[in-house]
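<backbone_tokenisation>
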Amino acid sequence: MIDTAENNSQPALKRGTDSRERAGFFNGRGPTASAVRAVIAAEGFNPPPDPSTLVVLPAGRRMLEASTVEEFNEAVDTLVPVWAAAGLGGAPEHADPDALRALTDVAPRGDDRCDLRLHWHGYTFDEGRVLYHAPDRYGVTNGGLWHIVTVSAERRPRVSLSPVDRVYGSLYADTAALDLQALAVWIVNDATRLSRTPTSAVWAQARYAAVANTARDEICLYIYNLDNEADNSPNPAPRDLQAYEEILAAAAALDWTNPHDRDDRRFRLLPRVVAPDLVADLLLEGRGPGTVTTVAETHAFWD
């Protein structure tokens, strides 16, 4: 049962007073968001009310797959007593106005980086889809992000999450099935294409190799046949700057970005001009022009 507070300026559940995990269910985001219901995990070692737990419950799966607010609310109303009956924790039998008013304190507040307090899981139906917010203790940066929930069609369903604020490159849909090595091949081909395009600033004499580091989701693009000035000069020529911008833009078309989380990306591209004294070593390592190799290094070995 959720504790309530007579004074509406005080949250019904205070940070640090109870270690049990909770989930709040809402409609909408921002100042107009409204709270629907809530559940509390049982004491001791019990699964938290996260998507991976809820999806195995029929009502939980219906809630996560809801396509209308009516479906979402109906599934929540079914889920709440099931959660308690299954011994997973507690839940109010009715939507206590004071408790739900306190829950709206931790509902989204305009942008997608709301603070759901410690131990809170948030679910809301907004703009025709179900969204989930993990507690900030889960290590999500910038106070956390709302995620779009997608449930697989498998007999044992799995849940995948993608941040609402993620912005996908123009070629992401065409390359979504490619792994990091295949993306590295694509980028080498794109750089080579730009080198052969008369209207491009990318260096006509340049040749390329790439190393895909799967441990860090990084792609090092080695650029051969330059004098190294394009990389090391304190005042690079405008044409060199434009060349880099073109290569980075071509890679960005395959990537995604997130204005609220700079670490939320598909990969990081690291262009490196190969100095003449390094050519022999890279050739011995099998990283000469035209090659694409894969490693799994936890450190950025090329820096």
Remarks:
- Residues 1-17 have pLDDT under 50 and may be disordered.
- The longest strand covers residues 34-41.
